[in-house]
């Protein structure tokens, strides 16, 4: 039936998602608010836009390669990219339906944040939010690794 | 036979391209654009109003207001004489470059020096989406607490300017400004701070002067 579709949610239960309007707009019944709506602000909406971009890229490359179906999508995500794997996977399972990428596995390769001290060139993986150089004590760190966010490759047949 | 196809394509590529197009349009109109990002209630709209007063006619400013719903902020700014357009994201947690592009016809860009884009109140998502802005300005308000950089490092690491708003409340709240600035600087050594109060007007002249310099680069 066009208009609604049953999606398996990562929250552990199935739910009806209206496809006409924005999926998580206030159409959601109030009982979901505590569980879903509160997360919408911090992740879900953001990941939906991102997941749509991933699907666009995957579909384009799959078409170019004349693939019949996409088996796997390899993503590289720096830890500073504010992307929640579970949310992307959740949206992916839903929006990839009826496309060449239906059922494709998403693989997330996470890159640890690496910063470099501008004063002494020391590089390290910070474990706390204050990026104070463990070598010289200066706070002049710049990000070397951590902002990456790209589709590395796709596996097709 | 399964095979692997290299892609290596940035996921934000489409947004970034539109952001570049927006930027070109801003530059052509000779307008500087500021992306204002903060949590809900940090005082984004009040800060834009207070900026208008502090500028006292030195610059012509406009605003693009991003909210999940309503035109409350737009109406508020229009009443004060600021040309403003509203983007309702319909539940979306951030503005993207495409939404901003669609709103630009609603502003007299050629007749403005400075445009504020008031992003959706949120410390997480907006920072991931370039809009074509020249400067990214975060606002932290004193009642939010001085621990926010620990909790949301990405935004503090990716802004050009941080406004510390509601400093008139400092005598009443345990907010350690020096410690706060130290943590933010460790994430972002080049950041510029403007401690302000939109109630008392403290700090707004420094901010306005900086804006005049920024717009003078046109």
Can you count the beta strands of chain B?
A: 8
Overall tally of domains of chain A:
1
Number of domains of chain B: 1
Order of helices and strands of chain A: EEHEHEEEEE
- For the record, the CATH class of chain B is Alpha Beta
Low-confidence stretches of chain B: none
Which percent range describes the beta-strand content of chain A? 25-35%
How many β-strand runs of chain A? 8
CATH architecture descriptor of chain A: 2-Layer Sandwich
Q: Biggest protein-protein interface?
A: A-B, 48 and 40 residues
Query: What best-fitting shape of chain B do the alpha-carbon axes yield?
Result: globular
Q: How would you describe what is shown here?
A:
The complex is a heterodimer of chains A (157) and B (218). With 157 residues, chain A is α+β, with helices and mostly antiparallel strands. Chain A has one domain: hypothetical protein PF0899 fold (2-Layer Sandwich). Chain A is 27% helix and 29% strand. A three-stranded mixed beta sheet of chain A has the order 4-3-8, with helices on one face. A three-stranded antiparallel beta sheet of chain A has the order 6-5-7, with no helix packed on it. In chain A, strands 1-2 form a two-stranded antiparallel ribbon. In chain A, a hairpin with a 5-residue loop joins strand 5 and strand 6. In chain A, helix 1 packs across helix 2. The radius of gyration of chain A is 19 Å and the shape is elongated. The N terminus of chain A is likely disordered. With 218 residues, chain B is of the alpha/beta class. Chain B has a single domain, classed as P-loop containing nucleotide triphosphate hydrolases (Rossmann fold), CATH 3.40.50. In chain B, strand 7, helix 7 and strand 8 form a beta-alpha-beta unit. The longest helix of chain B has 17 residues. Chain B is globular and about 70 Å long. Classes of the chains: A alpha+beta (157), B alpha/beta (218). Chains A and B meet through helix 1, strand 7 and strand 8 of A and strand 1, helix 1, helix 5, helix 6 and helix 7 of B.
């Amino acid at each position: 039936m066009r208009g609604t579709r049953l999606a398996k949610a990562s929250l552990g239960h199935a739910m009806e998602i209206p496809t006409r309007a924005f999926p998580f707009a206030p159409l959601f019944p109030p009982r979901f608010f505590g569980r879903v709506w509160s997360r919408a602000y911090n992740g879900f909406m953001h990941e939906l836009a991102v997941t749509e971009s991933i699907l666009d890229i995957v579909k384009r490359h799959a078409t170019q390669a004349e693939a019949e179906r996409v088996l796997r999508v390899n993503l590289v995500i720096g830890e500073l990219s504010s992307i929640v794997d579970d949310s992307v996977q959740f949206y992916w399972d839903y929006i990839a339906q009826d496309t060449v990428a239906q059922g494709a596995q998403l693989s997330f390769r996470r890159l640890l944040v690496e910063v470099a001290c501008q004063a002494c060139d020391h590089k390290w993986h910070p474990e706390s939010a204050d990026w104070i150089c463990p070598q010289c004590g200066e706070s002049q760190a710049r990000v070397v690794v951590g902002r990456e966010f790209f589709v590395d490759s796709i596996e097709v047949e | 036979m399964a095979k692997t196809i290299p892609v290596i394509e940035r996921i934000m590529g489409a947004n970034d391209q539109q952001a570049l197009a927006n930027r070109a349009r801003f530059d052509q109109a000779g307008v500087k654009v500021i992306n204002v990002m903060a949590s809900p209630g940090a005082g984004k709209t009040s800060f834009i109003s207070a900026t208008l007063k502090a500028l006292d006619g030195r610059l012509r400013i406009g605003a693009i207001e991003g909210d999940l719903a309503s035109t409350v902020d737009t109406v508020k700014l229009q009443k004060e004489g600021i040309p403003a357009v509203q983007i309702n994201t319909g539940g979306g947690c951030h503005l993207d470059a495409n939404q901003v592009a669609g709103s630009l016809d609603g502003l007299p860009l050629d007749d403005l020096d400075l445009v504020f884009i008031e992003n959706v109140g949120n410390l997480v998502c907006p920072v991931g989406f370039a809009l074509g802005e020249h400067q990214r300005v975060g606002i932290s308000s004193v009642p939010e607490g001085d621990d926010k950089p620990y909790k949301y490092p990405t935004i503090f690491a990716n802004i050009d300017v941080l406004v510390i708003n509601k400093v008139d409340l400092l005598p009443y709240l345990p907010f350690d400004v020096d410690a706060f600035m130290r943590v933010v600087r460790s994430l972002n050594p080049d950041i510029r701070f403007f401690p302000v109060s939109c109630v008392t007007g403290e700090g707004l002249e420094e901010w306005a002067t900086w804006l005049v310099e920024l717009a003078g680069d046109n």
